[in-house]
Amino acid sequence: MDITIESLVFLIFGALTLGAGVLVVTSRNLFHSGLYLMMSLFGVAGLFVLLAAPLLAGFQVVVYIGAIAILIIVAIMLTPGLTQIKTLFNEQWMVNLAAAVIVFLVLVSVITPLMDDVGVDNWNADFTEDHPKAVAADSMTTLGEQLVDPDYFMLPFEVASVLLMAAMIGAVLLVNPGQAEDESVVPPEGEEV
Amino acid sequence: MPSDFAPISALLILSVAVSLIIVFISRLLGPFHPTTRKLSPYESGMQPFGEAIRRIPVKFYRIAVLFILFDVEVIFFLPWAVVFRDFKLYGLAVMGVFFFVLMIGFVYEWKVGGLEWD
Amino acid sequence: MVPLWMYLVVAAALFCVGMFGVLSRRNAIAILMSIELMLNAVNINLVAFWRYQAPERLNGQAFAAFVFAVAAAETAVGLALIISLYRRRKSVVADDANLMKW
What is the CATH architecture of C26-95? Predict the structure, then answer.
């Protein structure tokens, strides 16, 4: 791969996504984790732009960064006691790390042309194409047409509304305003989280 | 196609650069002789204690859930709004069903008192 | 252009980072954030395969849009569960929710 503007931008956003993602998992302060999550999501939005899906990049910023990450940060502020974290990970974290690394290596051996170079045949899938067909820049019209078309996504579209309604009723029910508010109760000092 | 994003990437680079410059220019240009007194959050005043993150009332979460509902609506309304003229009544009916189901959740939250602030 | 496998490697790495977080973090909200990372890795994969393998149909993008809706629903309910747990047991450590653990 020769260095072009596009590959440079890809490297920047890929590094942003992965670096912020690692910091999400390893930050001691949960609030910082939330902010790093926003950064990682922004990197993913950049990758969407590179993949000629600017519509999804916009949705990513509006929905993921604007709503989901904000909801997570609100929930972090609702459950304080975050600065006295003694143990970040549970006791099997080394096994988990090994498992994650092994899964990653297996995936890499399948999706990259690496194993061909080593000499193992018929192992990896052929994902090396780098000149896909051009697509229309405006996918919004097509998406809108297909959302209401019974041959395409009309049913998932309606089911999505049922899912959102159920999620909303469930969320409101779980933080029921009718039950006794316990906001005066302060968590014990120095409790590990 | 990627060249369409030249203005927005210029904006990104510029905003990152400007914010970094603003943060570091005073450190670079001004004199900097730190003492413990100067580095404390309030130079003259009582020492802060406890955490900066206080527990906020759970009402904010209910409002945030309501916000998420209408925010996710946007990703379905926006593509639909571009083409809804071509589909006439049928498109309106499909969106009507979608909107009606979502409104059930909204009305539930309203009825159960989720929008009451006190 | 960037070959397809590079996007897939980024997505696989993000997925594994999220998987490690889900398995290892003790704080339930951190687990939820790691799940968001995994969902984003899936979204990168969906859009990358759409762009390189089937650009003539919009399925990849539409599926990613539905993943947004599912992620929003999942986050709202998951965080409500965690807040409910916190109000009852004054803890957000996932291991503390062991009432029905055998």
Answer: Orthogonal Bundle (1.10)
